[in-house]
Amino acid sequence: MSEWYQGDCAVPCEHSRERSRVRQLQLTKPPGSLGQLETIATCFSAWQQREIPALDTIGIRVFAADHGICDQGISAFPAEVTVQMIANFVAGGAAISVLSQDLGADFQVVNMGTRQPVPAAPRLTDISLMPGTRDFSREPAMPEAILEQALAAGREQIDGHDWQLFIGGEMGIGNTTAAAAILAALLQQPTERIVGRGTGIDTATWEHKCDVVAKSLLLHQLTGADPLQVLLCVGGLEIAALCGAFIRCAQSGVPVLVDGFIATAAAVAATRINPGVSGWLLAGHRSAEAGHQLALQSLSLEPILDLGMRLGEGSGAAVAVAVLRSALSLHRNMATFAEAEVSAAGAPAAGPPATA
Amino acid sequence: MSEWYQGDCAVPCEHSRERSRVRQLQLTKPPGSLGQLETIATCFSAWQQREIPALDTIGIRVFAADHGICDQGISAFPAEVTVQMIANFVAGGAAISVLSQDLGADFQVVNMGTRQPVPAAPRLTDISLMPGTRDFSREPAMPEAILEQALAAGREQIDGHDWQLFIGGEMGIGNTTAAAAILAALLQQPTERIVGRGTGIDTATWEHKCDVVAKSLLLHQLTGADPLQVLLCVGGLEIAALCGAFIRCAQSGVPVLVDGFIATAAAVAATRINPGVSGWLLAGHRSAEAGHQLALQSLSLEPILDLGMRLGEGSGAAVAVAVLRSALSLHRNMATFAEAEVSAAGAPAAGPPATA
Fold it and tell me: Of A4, A161, A196, A339, which sees the most CB atoms within 10 A?
């Protein structure tokens, strides 16, 4: 039986991408001299099916959840911080809240399931599928029915909007451990190459975290072949929701600016569930978290920023939006050689030609 | 006799930098998790002598000039493009014009000396010290009196303003050759490690460009010990003006966001003339031009962006401004742990401690 998340993705318009490339060659600059900004502009042309795209409307959703794996002592912060940070997100005090405000983005927080209840608040959708995942070093993180609901919850955050860009953020003490387990399974990499320091653990805790992930992968006998099984056994509620949101974006023709380690783990899972997702992804930044670079490489994504950030929440992607907007502003507003009456490259130089 | 450019630079306030660091540790995020954004915020605190700095006012000056070395056929574009691009800058069609407009910056173009005259225009200051430099593969690029005037012209673009940030851009067909010669001399590096493809030359022209630079350094017997002598023999009028502007910024307490290859060559020369300049520099981006990384390393600068840009004009720095503004917005607007009632790192975890 075919599920919604296996349905066709939209297809970027190659004709518009080509028209956009031609325009880039006509702008008053040496060909290629805007580097990655040129690729960004042509990608948006393909996504928006027009030569001169815009980036006015941005949707940002932060999915939050707790993680049973925290009982194994793998984080520098206690689990109750998840609920405290949800309150901070909606009150406007967290990094992603500040950046969303600056960007004029449509910002909401979605509680997928925390240990403690979260008070109702504006800009908070409380779904609470279960009180955090179970400890995946002992049993599967979530039942199959909950995984389906978490994927659908991500989808529902996309439906009914028509954003020009989506950023999915996350919050959940312990979720770098879940993301590392997902990536170690899907990329078939040793845990030491994937597991990082998260919010800032010491070396002994890092070794313990590697050990917990390795033993969990053995326990669940994950081969990496089935991304849904990986999410079910070692995933997180917020990671599954991100995965569902990314798939729905690709189906709806909304490009995704992927954030750091955890969002990239969700993006890798999304492309394994539905390969058409890969045409709708940009990477906002390279996280300082170990393993992020491997995950980006597996998606053939070149990150826009590399600032040593490792905060999550969607914050690295949100900082990168300004670079996308600069790329599109240059593409739209620069003069062409003809308009500016500037000689293009290859015109004869004033002096004698180069000789040895 | 002491010249103006040897006068004392302002001194960043270490007390404010420390207060800023303390604030960063109190914001609701794991310590260090904003990476380079934290360093940017604390630098601005030191520069503005306050815990919570702002970045509202930005001055951008593009210095333009022609280069006699173009007679050696080292560029993909003919020399008349310099004058055509000056018209494009003031008409608003060039990359830096578009970016300046988006940033709300104070933007002006300064013609330091082109082969052909430039028509008067708003936002254009026409200084025209000489009709481009002389061919430095045959004789010194400029007389000593002109060098002094070019440095002073840069200074005059800073005096009377009170910007919170300065970006110096440049335009001059042939100026990557001059910048490469300056850097090869000052950094004592082989030309092949410094000379790049400029606006996009082929391999034969690149080899010729290396050869021209190497022979010119021999002709002038430059040892790298005297930065003024280097600027005089193989520099450019716009590069000398940038150098003077950067020195004046440091003397006036205005931080400089250094652009790409040519601006960095000017910054290296500025720090050799006056070491106090180095405390007032940030690097906007890593250019695709060969040798830029070596120049940044010599200044101990870590670039903010690395997007494969190689346009000059100040464009890479201008794109990076948004990252600076994000850093300062987060520093100003994020809640502290106390304000948000969030538990800080190191609080006891909910579960048992990590064990082997």
Answer: A196
Q: Amino acid identity of B282?
A: L
Shortest CA gap A141–chain B (Å):
17
Q: Max alpha carbon distance in chain A (Å)?
A: 77
Buried b / exposed e along A74-86 (16+ C-beta atoms within 10 A)? bbbbbbbbbbbbb
* In the predicted structure, residue B352 carries a pLDDT above the cut 90: no
Three-state SS string over B245-311 comes to HHHHHHHHCCCEEECCHHHHHHHHHHHHHCHHHHHHEEECECCCCCCHHHHHHHCCCCCCECCCCCC
Question: If you ran DSSP here, which 8-state letter would residue A6 be given?
Answer: G
Residue of B197, B286, B311 best to disrupt the A interface, most CBs of A under 10 A: B311
- Of the CA atoms within 13 Å of residue B247, those in its CB half-sphere come to 28
Q: Percentage helix, strand, coil, to 5, in chain B?
A: 50, 10, 40
Three-class DSSP category at B319: helix
Count of CB atoms situated within 10 Å of the CB of A264: 31
List the one residue out of B254, B258, B251 whose CA is nearest residue B275: B251
Q: Is residue B128 a contact partner of residue B23, using CB atoms and an 8 Å limit?
A: no
d(CA A34, CA A44): 15
Tell whether A211 is within 8 A of chain B (Cβ).
yes
Q: Are B261 and B163 in contact (CB under 8 A)?
A: no
The amino acid sitting at A132 is G
How is residue B348 annotated by DSSP? P
CA distance B64 to B83: 8
Q: How far is CA A57 from CA A97, A282, B101, B218, in A?
A: 16, 16, 21, 57
Task: List domains and CATH numbers for chain B.
Answer: 11-54+328-340 (1.10.1610.10), 58-322 (3.40.50.10210)
DSSP symbol at B161: -
Of A93, A204, A347, the CB nearest to B334: A93
Q: What is the model's pTM?
A: 0.95
pLDDT tens-digit profile of B172-211? 999 999 999 999 999 999 999 999 988 888 999 999 999 9
